[in-house]
Amino acid sequence: MGSEKKPNHKGAATSRLDLSSMSRRDFGGLLIGAGLSLAGVGNTKAWASSAPAATPKTGGTVRIALNSQGMTDTFDGARSFNPGDWIRCASVFSYLTRMSPDGRALPEVARAFESSADAKVWTFSIVKGIVFSDGSPLTMDDLIFSIMRHKEKNVVSGVKEVVANIKAVKADGPNTLVVELFEPDADIPVTLSAVQFTIVKNGTYDFSKPIGTGPFVVKEFSPGVRTICVRNKNYWKPKRPYIDQFEMFPIVDQVARANALLSGDVDMAVDIRGPSIAKLRASGVANPVVTKAPRFTAIQAGVQLAPADSHDLRLAFAHLMNRERVLQTVLLGNGEIGNDFPINKSSPYYNSQLAQRHYDPDQAKFHIAKSGIGKGKVPVHVSDASAFSVEIGQLLQREAANIGLNIDLRREPADSYWSAIAGKRPFFAITVNPRPTYNIALNTLWKSDAPKNFSNYKNPKLDSLIDLARATLDDQKREQIYHEINAIIHDSAALVLPAFIDYVDGISNRVQGFEPLPISPLGGCFFTDQIWLDA
Predict the structure, then answer these.
(1) Average pLDDT over every residue of 254-283
(2) Do the beta carbons of residue 517 and residue 524 sit within 8 Å?
(3) What's the average model confidence in pLDDT over 492-516?
(4) Which residues pair with 44 in a beta bridge?
(5) Which CATH number fits domain 4-208+503-533: 3.90.76.10, 3.20.10.10, 3.40.1670.10, 3.30.2350.10?
(6) Please, what is the angle between helix 389-402 and helix 361-371, to 10°?
(7) pLDDT at 70 over 90
(8) Residue 101: what are its φ and ψ, rounded to 5°?
């Protein structure tokens, strides 16, 4: 099995993927392993009873404890913001494609898809006979609107930067959708699997009573309080979902959240931390589920601002970062050592030829002397808004003090951190969550004109390589391009990335069929049509 090249009706080569023709190297490129994504991330299931039963069982209610609450809770994928929103959207709506555990695009509502030779035109063959939960048929107009609504000026959408490259979406007959792009994009199939790209009815702007083609329908929704969804009898996948319903509600305190799982009050819990991880593992009733992911918290340099404009000072920071200590004491081992570029080892795009940076106070002293910083204070800004950044900053400050570098660690308020501090100070913490593809993340964070280029690092060669990677369909060539991207970012020392951070969630032993995805907590939040309960 695998992808094939064949001529289309105009004689141009195309790349095709369908249910009978898939390989691990087919389209995708998930940032696999923050921000929306990467390709090739693995995962580990921590509980011994996780092997799927031969035959899934039907029936029952699954209760899910969330880690946040608010009146902004929504079923609108465009405005989705947190795990609760993502689970709601993934349960009530369907998607053109679905992400595999290794970050590739799998057929979903689109049973097959293919690209033009230049990756600027993508054709999706649509499954026939799909209906919405109210019984009305899914039409091509619905699919066109579902993508193009994100480009509308009055629609608030988290993927506006992504859809800016979409030139047009058209129907080619009753079951074929054509997506035309301004610039080539080899990742568009996996991009369209992102939770924001819900398939909705043409003209839908009110999501208070959502109607979708997904596995569940809404029974009760009280923003910030509770969500209950029940099985969609019109769901187009035979025998799915297995459970009758699920219920979600917030338990903000992480210790209380873990205790609810231990007591059996909930079956799944988002974001397990600290001693609670070991308690779950030892309980016999539930276990932590660890998902490898490319999310990270790092110390970033605003290279246009003194003293971060000193390459030597940035290198000193890189050699002062005790990565092993961060991994073991801050993350309790739930992560993977980083090497100052935003792609982790699980991805084929990881450049293993770059020498791994280690804690090296002698090298740090050498670069401090060259920087001319002397005894002056070097402010480093951290915040609870950037996960684990306070602890990482404290470790860095202690190591710096040991060699005479005076780091002034400033803990900033969470509510204004991303607007007032990140990108506006010489050194500051940044947390990046997975994006659907590494290219989306690089375009968002590292292109010279990117809106979230917090480092203000500008490199025309890097810009051209990011564009080239997006346009290249050949996997081996893409890997080479990404390896060069890794090297440029690594050499800039604008990002001191100590470790990638695993997602750790909690799941009762009686929940079966769960398969983590490396895109967000609780398996990418696309699990409600997969799980079942084993008494």
Answers:
(1) 95
(2) yes
(3) 95
(4) 290
(5) 3.90.76.10
(6) 80
(7) no
(8) -60, -25
* Euclidean distance between CA atoms 42 and 23, whole angstroms: 16
Joined tokens for residue 282: 């030892």
Rounded CA-CA distance 99/31 in Å is 12
CA 101 – CA 215 distance, rounded (Å): 20
What's the 3-state SS for 40-96? CCCEEECCHHHCCCCCCCCCCEEEEEECCCCCCCCCCHHHCCCHHHHHHHHHHCCCC
Give me the residue label for tokens 């971060």: 308
Contact 190, 29 (CB under 8 A): yes
Contact of 454 with 299, CB cutoff 8 Å: no
| String of DSSP letters for 191-256 | HTTSTT-----TT----SS---SSSEEEEEEETTTEEEEEE-TT-SSTT---SSEEEEEE--SHHH
Is residue 22 scored above 90 in pLDDT? no
Query: Whole-angstrom Cα distance, residue 17 to residue 179?
Result: 15
Q: What pLDDT score does 302 carry?
A: 97
Q: Where are the beta strands (DSSP E) in 317-438?
A: 335-337, 377-383, 406-412, 427-432
Give 28's DSSP letter. B
Section 495-510 average pLDDT: 96
Q: Round to whole Å and give the CA distance between 125 and 111.
A: 6
Which pLDDT belongs to residue 38? Answer: 32
The span from the CA of 308 to the CA of 245, in Å, is 53
Domain ranges of the chain: 4-208+503-533, 296-501
Q: What is the DSSP letter of 267?
A: S
Summary count for the chain: helices (H), strands (E): 14, 27
pLDDT bin (cut points 50, 70, 90) of residue 9 is very low
Six-digit token string for 533 = 């309960």
Q: What is the CA radius of gyration of the chain?
A: 23
User: Which amino acid, 373?
Assistant: I
Helix then strand then coil, % of the chain, to nearest 5: 25, 25, 50
Name every residue whose Cβ is closer than 8 Å to that of residue 424 and which is 6 or more positions away in sequence. Answer: 302
CATH superfamily of 296-501: Dipeptide-binding Protein; Domain 3 (3.10.105.10)
Exposure string of 122-145, with b = 16+ CB inside 10 Å and e = fewer, is: bbbbbbeebebbeeeebbbebbbb
DSSP 445-485: HTSTT-TT-TT----HHHHHHHHHHHH---HHHHHHHHHHH
- Residue type at 307 in one-letter notation: P
Residues 97-151 pLDDT 10s:
999 887 789 999 999 999 999 999 999 999 999 999 999 999 999 999 999 999 9
pLDDT tens-digit map of 340-349: 999 999 888 9
Residue 283 near residue 272, CB atoms below 8 Å: no
